[in-house]
Design a protein that fits this description.
The chain is mainly β. The protein contains five helices and 13 strands. A five-stranded antiparallel beta sheet has the order 2-1-7-8-13, with no helix packed on it. Strands 3-4-10-9-6 form a five-stranded mixed β-barrel.
Length: about 230
């Protein structure tokens, strides 16, 4: 799954045909968490719109506003919660890194993953709009797939990262389901790096540069045992 991610340098991520002034001026984020507003790029009848949506997709027909943060690529076209959004409401979710957790007995070790050159990228996403009694929530989910060789050493899933040259295809309303399936695959592991990081990332209240700084594997676990 993907439960936390980063967007540290929004000014480095450019989009064609999108007014991104507010986006480029966004503060650095080191611990973006579910239920928070996140930047997305939507297709609005052929026009690109950069806007913030709540992370945690609430299907339009849902009785309660309970969000789902991830949608599995293998069943996205079958599950009632995702099927309509996958076919008609796809989006890009800008990021430049994400966290996954390795199980170490009863403990966990967070790892931070990013591109080798620290370049920004886009997750594949889907979105929907929920309304009830005058309230309206527009929300989204990140699509996940099997882990690549790098991620597989600590976790069996990873977010779908779209290569730059297929981002427009993901948004294109005319794309076929068959083609979409070919885009929801593990990203090239050779272009990524991952490092153990502090378990301070476990709390969404922490959002600072120290969260992405490498530490020795198991370092904080040893400290807890000793002290």
């Amino acid at each position: 799954m993907c439960g936390r991610f980063t967007l540290r340098r929004a000014d480095k991520l450019k989009f064609d045909s999108v007014n991104a002034y507010d986006f480029w001026r966004s503060p650095a984020r080191y611990n973006i968490a579910p239920t928070q507003p996140i930047w997305t790029v939507l297709d609005r009848e052929g026009d690109r719109e950069l806007t913030q949506l709540q992370w945690g997709l609430i299907p339009s027909w849902s009785e309660k506003p309970a969000g789902i943060i991830n949608a599995r690529a293998e069943s996205i076209d079958e599950k009632a919660s995702f099927k309509e959004s996958f076919r008609r409401r796809r989006c890009l979710i800008p990021a430049d890194g994400f966290y996954e957790w390795e199980k170490l007995g009863k403990a966990t070790q967070p790892h931070f993953f990013q591109m080798r050159n620290a370049a920004p990228f886009s997750f594949a996403g889907i979105w929907d709009e929920w309304r009830s009694d005058g309230a309206r929530i527009t929300s989204c989910a990140i699509v996940t797939t099997n882990a690549n060789e790098l991620l597989a050493t600590i976790h069996h899933r990873m977010p779908v990262i779209l290569p730059r040259d297929v981002e427009e295809e993901w948004l294109n309303e005319s794309i076929t389901i068959e083609r979409l399936r070919t885009l929801m695959v593990p990203f090239d592991a050779t272009k990524m790096i991952g490092t153990p990081v502090t378990n301070r990332v476990n709390s969404a209240d922490n959002d600072d540069p120290s969260l992405v700084e490498p530490i020795e594997h198991g370092e904080e676990l040893v400290q807890r045992l000793l002290f």
